[in-house]
Every structure is written in structure tokens, then in C-alpha cells.
């Protein structure tokens, strides 16, 4: 770039800076800042907003009490499902082979096909709901017909 080019660039910078500085110092301070209105919201407006959106509000102490109950419930051991009384049939034993990549859905189907459980979908949902699906181990497990879901889940996860 030539000497004249540098001089023109410098002159442009001076003019731009002068215009911005003049605008800043000569403008009204309040118009330059954003107009922030502090609007008071009444309790009835909050309640109507919450009800229109299908929400509720609760006091802080009630919320903390609910959290304490939730934490207590999470610390309790998983309850066993109610045992369904079945007629004593012949003992059906099966060795389940869990291999890498098998999902709980596939394991449930294998158990149903071999007469160990009657509903593979419900057993699969039980494993997921009670967080057993993350703990399934690889290997061979001997199971038998008549075991409840809790016992089956523990065999597959131990």
C-alpha cells in the first residue's frame, strides 16, 4: 500500500471514531440505555399462568418434604413383585446364554420361548423399570420355571 493509501485509511479511522464518540457523548443517556420496565406481577397472575399451563405451585417446605420422601423411597430396596399362585407343574430348567450385544428384549424372548416366563414384554419392562437392564452380566445362567421376576433378574445380574 502506498503512502497516500495509509493516509486515507488513517483519515477514515479518525472520522469514524469522531462520529461514534460524538454520538456517544451528545446523545441522551436514558435513550441510549434500554428501557427496562419493572413490572410487578401479582400472585393471582402467577396462579392463572400456572393453571393455564397445567402446573401448580407449592410452598418451599412442602417441596423439601417431598424431596425427602423421594430420597427415602430411592434408598429402600426394590420390592419383589407379588407372586402369582400357579399350579405345580413339572420343573422346567433352562440355561440362558447371555452374549455380548444381547438386549434385555432378546433375553426376555429366549426365556419366553423356553417356557420360563409367560410374557417377555412385561419382563423386559420390569428389568428396565427396576434398573436391572444396566447390570446384566455375560455368561450362562441356569433358571427354572416358577421363579419370580426378581429372582430371574438377580440371577442375570450376579
Q: Could you walk me through the main structural features you see in this protein, from its secondary elements to its overall organization?
A:
With 158 residues, the protein is mostly helical. The chain is 53% helix and 8% strand. It has 7 helices and 2 strands; from the N terminus they run H-H-H-H-E-H-H-E-H. A two-stranded antiparallel ribbon has the order 1-2.
Total count of helical runs of at least 4 residues: 7
So what's the oligomer here? Answer: single chain
Largest beta sheet: what is the strand line-up? 1-2
Strand content range = 5-15%
- The total strand number stands at 2
* Structural class by secondary-structure content: mainly alpha
Coarse morphology: elongated
Q: Sheet with the most strands?
A: 2 strands, antiparallel
Question: Using only CA atoms, what is the Rg?
Answer: 35 Å
Helix content: 40-55%
State the distance separating the first and last CA atoms: 77 Å
In sequence order, what are the helices and strands, one letter per element? HHHHEHHEH
For the residues shown, what is the average pLDDT? Answer: 84
The low-confidence runs, each spanning 5 or more residues with pLDDT under 50, are: none
Amino acid at each position: 500500500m502506498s503512502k497516500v493509501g495509509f493516509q486515507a485509511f488513517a483519515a477514515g479511522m479518525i472520522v469514524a471514531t469522531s462520529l461514534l464518540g460524538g454520538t456517544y457523548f451528545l446523545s441522551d443517556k436514558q435513550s441510549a440505555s434500554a428501557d427496562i420496565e419493572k413490572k410487578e406481577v401479582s400472585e393471582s397472575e402467577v396462579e392463572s399462568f400456572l393453571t393455564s399451563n397445567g402446573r401448580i405451585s407449592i410452598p418451599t417446605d412442602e417441596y423439601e418434604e417431598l424431596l425427602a420422601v423421594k430420597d427415602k423411597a430411592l434408598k429402600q430396596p426394590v420390592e419383589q413383585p407379588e407372586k402369582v399362585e400357579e399350579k405345580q407343574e413339572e420343573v422346567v430348567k433352562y440355561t440362558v446364554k447371555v452374549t455380548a450385544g444381547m438386549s434385555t428384549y432378546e433375553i426376555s424372548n429366549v426365556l419366553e420361548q423356553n417356557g420360563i416366563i409367560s410374557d417377555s414384554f412385561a419382563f423386559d419392562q420390569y428389568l428396565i423399570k427396576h434398573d436391572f437392564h444396566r447390570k446384566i452380566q455375560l455368561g450362562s445362567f441356569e433358571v427354572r420355571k416358577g421363579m419370580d421376576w426378581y429372582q430371574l433378574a438377580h440371577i442375570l445380574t450376579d
